[in-house]
Amino acid sequence: MDEIIENERGLFEHFKFIIDQGQSMLRVDKFLSDKIETYSRTKIQQSADNGFLFANGCAIKSNYKVKPGDVITIELDYPKHELEIIPEEIPLHIVFEDEHLLVIHKPPGMVVHPGYGNYSGTMVNALAWHLRDTIQFEANDPRPGLVHRIDKDTSGLLVVAKHEQAKVALAKQFYEKSSERTYIAVVWGIPKQRSGTISGYIGRGLKDRKVMTMYPDETNGKWSVTHYTVLQELGYVSVVECKLETGRTHQIRAHFKSIGHPLFNDETYGGNQILRGTTFSKYKQFVSNCFTICPRQALHAKTLGFVHPFTKQFLQFDSEIPDDMQQLIHKWHDYIATRTDED
């Protein structure tokens, strides 16, 4: 678990882990780099060198091996630049708003939070402008109002808290899995089962930390569950509905990669290659045109449901599938309806 704490050194993030009884002996820097997705192993080693890494209250080095029952804590300074959120007048598609929260329909291509290489033009920059007169909203909070995120090239619904009380209440729902989220995706191929569940331990790749990988146990990953239903079979691709039970980084993308059905045009997980179909040049050109129509992973956060933290009313929101994905689906419909033996 983690929380924001301020002490004589200024603002830092505090993480605390109680090591499970079944945990094998593992270097603490390796253990933490798998658990804390936003920090590299090098960053954790630097924290240890600076005396900010502890086991059972005692400072430890990065080569310390964790054992069952250990209480591991770490303090990590935030990069200074990431604390300076600059308000920018960027249009937001606001689906719902009151004094406690707002629900936003994020377009594809918009980064949610500033980070390395994306210090402006993000949804948080837009929120800082939109809520500039809201005293309770602190844009320079390292996680201003955010209780969940979606990837840059994924479109769809997000809820943002306007103050700390709303943030805590909403985050509790996401943690306890009582919120409801449904995604629509286009994947390569047709799953053998029209409906099913994909589950397993998911964590950052050992060779490339930007890619999430499925692991056999919790040593390198966190438990994840996605329920899916095939809505349409379109020859060499399928339209699927996904309901999240957990919300891990790249969960849907990594899950469908793991069962051999990467999301259409998902460059990170191999979906930007022709993975199903014929070798005819006409078909290759058709798929190339589809990649152009939808130049991103075909994934949309369609619905979002949660209990309002103050009115206690259950709120359910739905959103239109973006034009690029609609065009993609229609193009595959037309292809299936008109294809010949030479396609």
Architecture overview:
The chain is of the alpha+beta class and 343 residues long. The protein has three domains: 77 residues, RNA-binding S4 domain (Structural Genomics Hypothetical 15.5 Kd Protein In mrcA-pckA Intergenic Region, Chain A, Roll), CATH 3.10.290; 95 residues, Pseudouridine synthase; 158 residues, Pseudouridine synthase, CATH 3.30.2350.10. Helices cover 22% and strands 31% of the residues. The protein contains seven helices and 17 strands. Strands 8, 9, 10, 11, 12, 13, 14, 15, 16 and 17 form a ten-stranded mixed β-sheet that branches. It is globular. The N terminus is likely disordered.
* CATH hierarchy, class of the largest domain: Alpha Beta
Tell me the number of helical segments per DSSP (H or I, 4 or more residues long). 7
Count of the separate structural domains = 3
Spans with pLDDT under 50 lasting ≥5 residues? Answer: 1-11
SSE run: EEEHHEEEEEEHEHEEEEEHHEEH
Helix/strand-derived category reads alpha+beta
Total beta strand runs: 17
> Which architecture name of the largest domain does CATH use?
2-Layer Sandwich
Morphology call: globular
What is the CATH topology assignment of the largest domain? Pseudouridine synthase
Major β-sheet profile: 10 strands, mixed
Please give the radius of gyration in angstroms. Answer: 22 Å
Instruction: Kindly estimate the percentage of residues that lie in beta strands according to DSSP.
Output: 25-35%
**Residue-averaged pLDDT, rounded?**
87
